[in-house]
């Protein structure tokens, strides 16, 4: 390590960063990385099993093995040169840093307030020793562990969270899926509007200011006497084609007996009932109708319209990625305790006339066309002409989200439901969730749609509790 004109940075990586993102060692641009021996020991303990963490650990080990292949002791001591980003993206810098391993004992200078030989304290002690040995470097600990970051800050050690997997700087910047048009929208664009009808559908071709920021299938609305609701069907550099949406608020346009109770639910049903929209994401707090709308649209298109062969319902089991158990029972029987939302909504959708016998016959019919699967067994499968509902999608990592979506074969539609404010997965936040990742990456694709549901529609009791408690 030589002194440079500007103080170089030396990043000490915590084990959980490598477990979270195996490619993290390639994402520090021109800066150097230091791996403490205790981190390698923890990696070795975490490599067994079929969980996502174990797979990530094994991938890290393969990366390190490739970097160290044919390297001499002198080269390891001098730091192994790191290649550029591993995802094929162009590098922003011409130089890349080096990877250093702990090859000698570093005296720990931890205060007596941090007793014990635990891995976190060893990493902090290593950081302090490195700063004393290499004062020309800015030594920074990188960790996903909040408690370790707190202890580092108390000791005066530079510390950071791992931000490279962050989709957005702030979750408030997440694409909402809708935009309110200004009251003078028609006056400003009156010279550049063409309108026509095809098969009972009304279209407008709009040019002018504001249209360049629209996304495909974005929901547009205007309040007031001249209010309307439309969705962007196509957009190019000069103009956009928008279509008036169907109104599912009336009983004659109900979907499996369900009607929209607000504007966002109406937009959601338009996306869910459009066979040209292959991926739909619905965000919203509890009680906004995400699961009910998705199920109703799935049943209508599976049983009435025969667009899909069956509905597949799945969700992340908490703890994420762990085995669902070895007790007797099929995959569906083991997943049933996690599917309370499905059962509750099926009760609403099967309120048929004909008494107990009619209700039992309807239940048998629905259960024959609805399958419950665990995410643990999705890898390697291909779903053809299926309507897939992924509940609690905010608990997926971006990699798990990609694994699921790439299972879709021809004629399959995927509906992701979730609330990014309720994440149960360790080391995932609102800005790093797989659901946030999917919403942000799919917003420009013409066969995807997204809407954030804002209003709860459960009951006056639930609404009052949500507002006041």
TrEMBL record:
Single Gene Ontology MF annotation: ATP binding
CDD domains (UniProt xref): PIN_VapC_PhoHL-ATPase (cd09883)
Domain of life, source organism: Bacteria
Any Gene Ontology CC annotation: cytosol
InterPro entries: P-loop_NTPase (IPR027417), PhoH (IPR003714), PhoH2-like (IPR051451), PIN_dom (IPR002716)
Alphabetical keyword list: ATP-binding, Nucleotide-binding
Domain PIN: from-to ranges: 9-150
Protein name according to UniProt: Phosphate starvation-inducible protein PhoH
Source organism of the structure: Solemya velesiana gill symbiont
């Amino acid at each position: 390590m030589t002194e440079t004109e500007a103080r170089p940075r030396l990043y000490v990586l915590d084990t959980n960063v490598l477990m979270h993102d195996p490619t993290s060692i390639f994402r520090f641009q021109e800066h150097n990385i230091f791996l403490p021996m205790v981190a390698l020991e923890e990696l070795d303990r975490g490599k067994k099993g079929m969980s996502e963490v174990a797979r990530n650990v094994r991938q890290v080990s393969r990366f390190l093995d490739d970097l160290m292949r044919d390297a001499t002791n002198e080269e390891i001591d001098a730091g192994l040169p790191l290649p550029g980003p591993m995802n094929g993206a162009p590098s922003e810098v011409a130089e890349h840093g080096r990877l250093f391993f702990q090859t000698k004992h570093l005296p720990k200078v931890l205060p007596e307030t941090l007793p014990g030989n635990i891995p976190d304290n060893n990493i902090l002690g290593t950081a302090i020793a490195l700063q004393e040995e290499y004062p020309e470097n800015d030594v920074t600990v990188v960790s996903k562990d909040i408690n370790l970051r707190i202890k580092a800050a108390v000791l005066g050690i530079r510390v950071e969270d791992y931000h490279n997997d962050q989709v957005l700087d702030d979750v408030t910047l997440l694409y909402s899926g809708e935009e309110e048009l200004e009251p003078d929208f028609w006056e400003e664009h009156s010279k550049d509007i063409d309108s026509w009808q095809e098969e009972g559908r009304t279209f407008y071709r709009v040019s002018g200011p504001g249209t360049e920021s629209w996304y495909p299938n974005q929901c547009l609305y205007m309040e007031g006497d001249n209010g309307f609701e439309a969705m962007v069907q196509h957009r190019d550099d000069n103009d956009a084609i928008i279509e008036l949406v169907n109104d599912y608020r009336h009983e004659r346009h109900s979907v499996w007996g369900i009607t929209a109770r607000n504007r966002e639910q109406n937009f959601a049903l338009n996306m869910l009932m459009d066979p040209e929209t292959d991926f739909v994401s619905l965000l919203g707090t509890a009680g906004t109708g995400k699961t009910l709308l998705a199920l109703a649209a799935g049943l209508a298109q599976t049983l009435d319209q025969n667009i899909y062969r069956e509905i597949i319902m799945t969700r992340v089991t908490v703890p994420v990625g762990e085995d669902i158990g070895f007790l007797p029972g099929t995959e569906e029987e083991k997943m049933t305790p996690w599917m309370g939302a499905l059962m509750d909504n099926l009760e609403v959708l099967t309120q048929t006339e004909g008494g107990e016998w009619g209700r039992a016959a309807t239940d048998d019919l629905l259960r024959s066309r609805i399958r419950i699967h665990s995410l643990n067994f999705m890898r390697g499968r291909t779903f053809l002409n299926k309507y897939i509902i992924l509940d609690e999608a905010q608990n997926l990592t971006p990699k798990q989200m990609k694994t699921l979506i790439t299972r879709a074969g021809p004629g399959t539609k995927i509906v992701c439901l979730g609330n990014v404010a309720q994440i149960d997965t360790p080391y995932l936040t609102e800005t790093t969730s797989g659901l946030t990742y999917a919403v942000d990456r799919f917003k420009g694709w013409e066969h995807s749609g997204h809407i954030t549901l804002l209003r709860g529609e459960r009951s006056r009791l639930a609404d009052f509790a949500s507002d006041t408690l």
